[in-house]
UniProtKB/TrEMBL annotation:
Keyword flag Disulfide bond: no
Pfam families assigned to the protein according to its UniProt record, in alphabetical order: Fer4_11
Lineage per the UniProt record: Bacteria, Bacillati, Bacillota, Clostridia, Eubacteriales
Name recorded for this polypeptide: 4Fe-4S dicluster domain-containing protein
Any Gene Ontology CC annotation: cell envelope
Length: 263
C-alpha cells in the first residue's frame, strides 16, 4: 500500500486556524474555553479534545516591531513511531498507509506514549483513562478523501498525497522560497524513519520547538527490551508461583482427605 503524507508549507500559512476548526468539526471534538495569556495563540497546548493547533511565537524585530512566527502542530505519524514502541498494551499501531492508529479499547491511559513521543503529542483523558491524538483522518483517507485540515486550508499550505510525491513537492518549494527565507529548512524527510508530515519551515526547527535531530529516547529501548519483558516475566513468575502454591495446597488437602479415609 502507498504510504501517504501531508506537506505543510509554513511560508504559505497565514495562521487563520481553519485547520484547527476543521479538525474539531470533522472529528466532533467539543470546544474548550481557555484563558487569555496575552498572546494571539488560542490555547496553551494540545488536549484530548484538541488534536491540532497553531502555535504562535511572538518576538520583536531589529526595528522593535512585533513579528509572529507560527507552526501547525499535530501528530507527525512518524515512520518509526516511539509511541507504538512504548505502548505496553498494543493500543497504537502503524498502518500501511502511514497513519499511526490508536486502538481505543486497548488503551489503559498509562501515558507511556506521551512520555516517549519526541514531540509530546498524545494527550491522556485522565477521567476516561484513554489517549487521544490526530488520527490522520483515517476514515477520510481510507475512503480516498484528503484529511479535513488539508481540505480546508485556504492557502494550500497543507497538501496531502503519496509520501514520495510530497517529498518531491517539498524539495521544489524549498528552492522557490530560499531567496526570501535564507534559513528555510525541510523537516521530516529522513527524521524518525521519515515523518508522515513534512514541514517547510522559514527558519531553523528549534525556532518552532521542533527537536533538530529527533531521536527515540535511549530509555525507550530499556523500557521495551528490559523493563516490560521483566514485568511480564515477573507476572508469569507470580502466576506460576500462585499455581504452584494452589497445587501444593490441593495435594495437602487430598492427602489429609486420604488419611481420614484410611483412619
Ligand atoms: S488552514 Fe492553512 S493557512 Fe490556515 S492556519 Fe491552517 S495551515 Fe495555516
Ligand atoms: S509524533 Fe509522537 S504520537 Fe505521533 S507517531 Fe510520532 S511518536 Fe507517535
Ligand atoms: S489529519 Fe484529521 S485528525 Fe489530524 S489534524 Fe488533520 S483534521 Fe485533525
Amino acid at each position: 500500500m502507498t504510504r501517504m503524507a501531508r506537506f505543510v508549507d509554513i511560508t504559505q500559512c497565514i495562521a487563520c486556524r481553519g485547520c484547527q476548526v476543521a479538525c474539531k468539526q470533522w472529528n466532533q471534538l467539543p470546544g474548550e474555553i481557555g484563558s487569555f495569556t496575552g498572546t494571539y495563540q488560542s490555547h496553551n497546548n494540545l488536549s484530548p479534545n484538541r488534536w491540532t493547533m497553531i502555535r504562535y511565537y511572538e518576538h520583536k524585530n531589529s526595528e522593535g516591531e512585533m513579528e509572529w512566527d507560527f507552526v501547525k502542530q499535530c501528530c507527525l505519524h512518524c515512520g518509526e513511531p516511539s509511541c507504538v514502541k512504548a505502548c505496553p498494551n498494543d493500543a497504537l499501531r502503524k498502518a500501511d498507509n502511514g497513519a499511526v492508529v490508536t486502538i481505543k479499547e486497548n488503551c489503559v491511559g498509562c501515558g507511556y506514549c506521551e512520555i516517549y513521543c519526541p514531540f509530546k503529542i498524545p494527550k491522556i483523558d485522565q477521567r476516561a483513562k484513554k489517549m487521544s491524538k490526530c488520527t490522520f483522518c483515517l476514515g477520510r483517507i481510507g475512503n480516498n478523501m484528503e484529511p479535513a485540515c488539508s481540505k480546508t486550508c485556504v492557502t494550500d499550505a497543507i497538501l496531502y498525497g503519496p509520501r514520495d510525491e510530497m517529498v518531491r513537492v517539498a524539495q521544489e518549494r524549498l528552492q522557490t522560497v530560499q531567496g526570501q527565507y535564507p534559513k528555510a529548512t525541510l523537516y521530516g524527510i529522513d527524521e524518525l524513519g521519515g515523518l508522515g508530515m513534512i514541514y517547510l519551515l522559514p527558519d531553523r526547527p528549534s525556532k518552532y520547538d521542533l527537536p533538530e535531530n529527533p531521536q527515540a529516547p535511549l530509555s525507550l529501548t530499556l523500557l521495551k527490551d528490559v523493563v516490560q519483558p521483566a514485568g511480564t516475566l515477573a507476572l508469569a513468575g507470580t502466576v506460576v508461583g500462585l499455581a504452584g502454591a494452589a497445587l501444593l495446597s490441593w495435594r495437602n488437602e487430598r492427602m489429609k482427605g486420604g488419611d481420614k479415609k484410611n483412619d
